């Protein structure tokens, strides 16, 4: 999920790993899982396959989770599409303001979501914070999508609120309340603590929240693993901290299969399971046909960005808006139309085959 031009070159990756080794001498790791524990956990699951999910009726995380717009009927229908193609995991973004507005109701809706997902034999990977897209969130009615613009209403969390006095105690209470409530819940696969820290030009300014959220998670000590995905290989300090403190290694890669495989080969040096929590941008050469079979062969979990075309407008590319709102010749993300018709039947057939359906 990017609002910058994505750079994922092997040379930069090698340089980052060299520097990461140096930073490893300086940054104390938390009580992350050992490779033995992480691999034993991974072996208990069949190959992790799925996507990042928001219902087609929601433009952003607030519209998904606020009481007035929470849409269990659409969630149920669309997770049914996921079950039908053999997906077993969905990555879902929470939102701190929805919790602050209505703590008990928010957790009730999270539980309702998990009940629906579990009915469809789907585990969930929840995301707490995010540095992507719009920085000024407001509770209440959310804006309509901007025509032809990718993720026009998606929200950073906490975004500009990071400057507010007292924000850290509030965010700590949010993470600990939600995580403590669900720390033993087998419907949750993994806690993804922070999506793309450093994005939106923040870079190392996100280190403070990154280190704090890992600390809060370790205090709760959930049954499920915690992780923060690697995504930009120029962010050396962030990458070192994320890799050292994650129980399993998660990452994003929107490149073709050859470049993506190089990423995997280097990340395997950590000795822990790998889960790709974002891939598949058709116009950039990251497609189901070339990348997903490779991920299965390498035993790397595979979660693509985008599921049902909807208010997030992710059929449009990050950097190629279409002001007339026409459907692009080649969708950037997403698999299904709202009625459950596949964008490309051959893609769905391949996904089903790889998932043993």
TrEMBL record:
GO terms for biological process: xylan catabolic process. GO terms for molecular function: hydrolase activity, acting on glycosyl bonds. It comes from the Bacteria. Keywords: Carbohydrate metabolism, Glycosidase, Hydrolase, Polysaccharide degradation, Signal, Xylan degradation. Residues 1-24 form the signal peptide. This is 1,4-beta-xylanase. It comes from Mucilaginibacter gilvus.
